[in-house]
Design goal:
Layout lengths: L3 E2 L51 E6 L7 E5 L7 E3 H6 L22 E13 L5 E12 L5 E3 L1 H6 L3 E2 L6
Parallel strand pairs: 3-7, 4-6
Antiparallel strand pairs: 1-8, 2-3, 2-5, 4-7, 5-6
């Protein structure tokens, strides 16, 4: 997934975790060999570091590769994955929402209402230019402005995390 690594995807090229090596993940870390000082880009005046930032996202095809890709926001503040009702209605073949948990949404703007949840597939491109297929459970929300908010449920189920490369 763009700038993402999935533990359950093809892990041949991923570094082994302590758990994969049967090491104690709570053991003290081994000493670092080198400290690399990373420069900020772009340089902004003090107190203005948040200017121009955007949410972490992945480019995803919802339902099938025939669907136009969307930027799905990875939201570390949301416990569950949410999809706007308008976006859900625009994708042919998605199932009707089923009754799920009784959920109150506190931090979405506007007068939103949860209609139920659906299960579907999404496809996302990895940094190795492969397609990763994920089963996704999303609650459908009326009057939500964002098309697709990927909550912590999705991120932890597939053990996703951001990967970056240090400049040379």
């Amino acid at each position: 997934v763009d700038k993402m690594a999935a533990h359950n995807a093809d892990t041949a090229s991923l570094p082994e975790t302590p758990e994969a090596k049967n090491e104690d993940p709570l053991a003290p870390p081994k000493p670092f060999v080198d400290i690399v000082h990373v420069r900020k880009a772009p340089l902004l005046p003090d107190g203005m570091g948040s200017l121009g930032t955007r949410a972490l996202h992945i480019k995803a095809h919802v339902g099938s590769l025939d669907q136009e890709p969307v930027l799905a926001r990875l939201d570390s503040g949301a416990n569950i994955t949410l999809m706007s009702e308008d976006y859900w209605k625009s994708i042919p073949g998605l199932p009707a929402p089923k009754e799920g948990l009784c959920i109150k949404l506190y931090h979405l703007t506007g007068n939103v209402r949860v209609l139920g949840y659906i299960k579907m597939m999404i496809l996302a491109e990895t940094t190795g230019h492969q397609l990763a297929s994920f089963e996704l459970e999303a609650y459908i929300v009326r009057d939500m402005k964002v098309l697709l908010l990927m909550g912590k449920d999705f991120q932890t189920t597939y053990e996703l995390g951001e990967v970056f490369t240090l400049p040379h």
